[in-house]
Amino acid sequence: MTGFSKAATLVTGAALAVAIPLGAYAAQGGAGDTPDGAQSGDVAILLTALDDEYKAEATYAAVLEKFGSDVRPFVNIIRAEQRHSDMAKAELDRLGAQYPRDNPYLGTIAAPDTLLVACETGIVAEQENIALYDRLLPTVADAQVHDVLSKLQWASQDRHLPAFQRCVDRGGTMGGGWGRGRGRGWGRGG
Fold it and tell me: Is there a domain that residue 38 lies in?
């Protein structure tokens, strides 16, 4: 099995393992607590997005625990995933919905064997996240929810995915740059 296949298996297995709890949560009334049908649909969409953000955070936390708390790009991206969860939670709060406040997946996902496989896993996870938002966004009724989810998709597509691709291009080694500039001298006077 190739590293990329292993990465896809890790992400797919994690997705199956973690999708059940939030899905069960929604079925128990998390998404049904709103009287408006469109609003209820948007709550279910936000729960799906929150589940995906929680899963990503837990995956990247496992990598940081295994390889060190300052390993890039994971140290930066995990903070972004936490902000993304907070954005989804803020919308769920605005809509008066219930949801799991704490990430139920932290500590339940194993890190890959190498940083290269971890970065390949990140690529697969971000590609799946982008595809998820491609499916969800056309069904969102609330303009504010749509705006938030569009921002989350943009971050995955334009920030996280390229960072993981750079990591894979370097063979899983972390670059010596200062971030943000994508190796083009930003912040170094050049």
Answer: yes
